[in-house]
Amino acid sequence: MKFIEKPILLQGHERSITQIKYNREGDLLFSVAKDTVTNVWYSVNGERLGTYNGHTGAVWCVDCDWDTKNVLTGSADNSCRLWDCETGKQLALLNTNSAVRTCGFDFSGNIIMFSTDKQMGYQCYLNFFDLRDPQQIDDNQPYLSVPCSDHKITSAVWGPLGEFVIAGHENGEINQFSAKSGEVLKKAKEHSRQINDIQPSVDLTIFISASKDNTAKLFDSTSLDHIKTFKTERPVNSAAISPIMDHVVMGGGQEAMEVTTTSTRIGKFEARFFHAAYEEEFGRVKGHFGPINCVAFHPDGKSYSSGGEDGYVRIHYFDPQYFDFELEA
């Protein structure tokens, strides 16, 4: 894999990164970690723009709305918070009974969804709030709350048109939950173990799931038809689809608790690039001193970033030759 220069190293967290997210234009990169801090960076040079302070536990998830007005974060302090992106001011605080694992704005930026963990006697819920109705926020009453009693949600994203949420569960199942009624519209069970991450393509028509069963898979968002599988020898923590090439990037490694028992060389802490059509690996990128927890492509497809167990976020810019690359059929 060719890159223009050294990666940009973002050092703004003291503990491992849990999620990174670009805004729609790609000029900003949001990062959250287990150290309670939410950072926002200029993606072009890695300068830190600011932080969103308020959480008192590990922050598991972050999302930014379509026009980069608001930011949403979910944390192990049993809260989901809404922030003003520009000023860093906290706009809303939604308290829950257990940790908030996933969160996201729909396409309009008006509806938010977040899921809570199954812990301390409370079951997993998928909650929907309409931000246009201040009463819901003030009363902490979602207009829809869907219980998931069997297997908790470990990753979730909005589907196309904001009609449903695509959720991955700890048993490897993928479900579509209607944002209107809360019913399960479709189910797929292609993975054998927990789904660690789900990321949609730019147009939301397909998505990629990363699983503990050492694979990442492409699915059709509407029908949940399984399209492709990318196999590795390690659990896949995160995977992303390139917006301009038929490429996917995957990051993984062992579980954090097993890391100390292996040398960094054996750990295989590389980002791995696969061709989306041929399912073949064509490149690896070294860098992190621990498993990669999350990966994301820049919306223009000319760079990607990764967040690791080592607490660093790295932004890699591709060499122009990368875009001429096409695997021989």
TrEMBL record:
SUPFAM superfamilies: WD40 repeat-like. Keywords: Cytoplasm, Initiation factor, Protein biosynthesis, Repeat, WD repeat. It is found in: Cytoplasm. It holds the Pfam family EIF3I. SMART domains: WD40. Component of the eukaryotic translation initiation factor 3 (eIF-3) complex, which is composed of 13 subunits: EIF3A, EIF3B, EIF3C, EIF3D, EIF3E, EIF3F, EIF3G, EIF3H, EIF3I, EIF3J, EIF3K, EIF3L and EIF3M. This is Eukaryotic translation initiation factor 3 subunit I. It comes from Amphiprion ocellaris. The gene is EIF3I.
